[in-house]
Design a protein that fits this description.
The complex is a heterodimer of chains A (about 120) and B (about 280). Chain A is of the alpha+beta class and about 120 residues long. Chain A has 4 helices and 5 strands. Chain A has a single domain, classed as Dynein light chain 2a, cytoplasmic (Beta-Lactamase, 2-Layer Sandwich). Chain A is about 35% helix and about 30% strand. In chain A, about 50% of the residues are buried. Helix content of chain B is about 60%, strand content about 15%. Chain B is built from 12 helices and 5 strands. In chain B, helix 4 packs antiparallel against helix 5 and helix 6 runs antiparallel to helix 7. Classes of the chains: A alpha+beta (about 120), B alpha+beta (about 280).
């Protein structure tokens, strides 16, 4: 799991990543000590869960990635079946497509499940 | 208030200071109800100094300032309470009241809207909001009569126009505009979709949860959220007082749809940049 996070953090724009349980407790992390990442991750999971719950109502089905873009940063969250969430923090300029692909690959490796088809193929 | 009462009050203040720390707010409020302003101020000031992170203490302090006619100090205290506890409906209602007393009706209405969003059954906020809105048209009427100013106003864009423009994009399956209170105002996620109202309400709740997250606040105001599912992607963008929800094909790059969504947000909110009008 640690290796997955280290690999994920090599994606341009990513500044740290964590695996967080459904209740917000940190299972594994690879972030700078200066960042209060556990608190941020716990709140990110709460927000991501709220947005992910819109899947059925909007007709897109069960959510497999959630991206939260703010003015000065970006949060990526991917649910890990039976474990919790994979969360990554990026700077505002992080490229969404490559990070989502890296997140899905890391999530598949952690859970041992095959990811769904890529999202970012041009129409 | 006679000298005897002041002395009695000060003695009581000394006794109450040794009470459990969070009881000071109730004690101060009791003094306030009894019109013992000096005692209320003394107890409350001591309390908030000892427990600066206790929001009800700042709320009572604001009430005391307000009672003394110190509206600016009252505003500062209640804003501190909101900073500590952003979901406190009473604090937002009190802020609305303080702003109304200062004549700032627009900001008051915004604060009261927030109070009612958090607690729709708040009777004080309901009444104050009615008063704030009752007086607004009379004040705005003369300005609206001046042609030169009318010309300078930005052209309003209807929610329906923006929703239609988004739906016309290739790969977009549905677009919905909603108020920040979660009421769908235009567009649809798909013809005959019975979930639009529920979706708008849930999206508004999700956006509010994000905006109230203090830790995520270090990244600045929310701009948009994107959720990918097995049958498509949903983008929820903040347009100031409104939300723009767009459902796109799973295969579509977000980079193609986000600029269009952000343009819609700018048009709806009249802002120069999306996401810069986060709520207070």
């Amino acid at each position: 799991m640690r290796a997955n996070l280290e690999q994920l953090n090599m994606t341009p724009g990513i500044i740290g990543s964590l695996v967080v349980a459904f209740d917000g407790l940190v299972i594994e992390k690879d972030v700078a000590e200066s960042v209060d990442a556990p608190v941020m991750a716990a709140e990110a999971v709460q927000v991501a869960a709220c947005f992910s719950s819109l899947g059925d109502l909007s007709g897109i089905g069960d959510a497999d990635t959630c991206v939260l873009q703010a003015e000065r940063g970006i949060v990526f969250a991917v649910p890990l079946t039976g474990i919790g969430w994979l969360v990554a923090f990026g700077d505002a300029e992080a490229y969404v497509g490559p990070v989502r692909q890296a997140m899905r690959a890391a999530a598949a490796d952690i859970t041992g499940r095959v990811p769904l088809a890529e999202h970012d193929e041009e129409e | 208030m006679g000298p005897d009462r002041i002395t009695a009050g000060n003695t009581a203040v000394a006794d109450r200071r040794s009470a459990p720390v969070f009881s000071f707010a109730a004690t101060a409020e009791q003094y306030l109800a009894e019109d013992r302003l000096d005692a209320a101020r003394d107890v409350c000031l001591h309390g908030v100094t000892q427990s600066p992170g206790y929001a009800p203490g700042h709320i009572v302090m604001a009430k005391i300032h307000q009672e003394c006619g110190a509206h600016e100090a009252a505003e500062q205290s209640v804003r501190r309470a909101i900073q500590i506890d952003p979901m406190n409906s009473v604090a937002h209602a009190l802020l609305g009241q303080v702003l109304l007393l200062q004549g700032n009706r627009e900001a008051a209405a915004k604060a009261l809207d927030e109070a009612l969003f958090l607690c729709p059954a708040n009777p004080v906020a309901t009444e104050l909001l009615r008063r704030a809105k009752e007086q607004e048209p009379a004040e705005r009427a003369p300005a609206a009569a001046r042609p030169s100013e009318v010309v300078q106003q930005p052209q309003p864009v209807s929610d329906e126009e923006e929703a239609s423009a988004l739906r016309a994009m290739s790969g977009v399956d549905g677009a919905l505009v909603a108020t920040r209170q979660g009421l769908a105002s235009a567009g649809t996620m798909g013809e005959g979709n019975e979930n639009d109202e529920a979706l708008a309400a849930s999206a508004a709740t999700a956006m509010q949860t994000w905006k109230r997250s203090q830790a995520l606040g270090t990244f600045g105001a929310p701009r948009w959220a994107a959720v990918a599912g097995e049958r498509g992607q949903l983008v929820v963008a903040d347009a100031g007082g409104k939300l723009v929800l767009t459902r796109v094909a799973r295969r579509l790059r977000l980079g193609r749809v986000i600029p269009q969504v952000e343009t819609a947000c700018r048009n709806l909110s009249g802002r120069s940049e999306v996401g810069h009008a986060s709520e207070s």
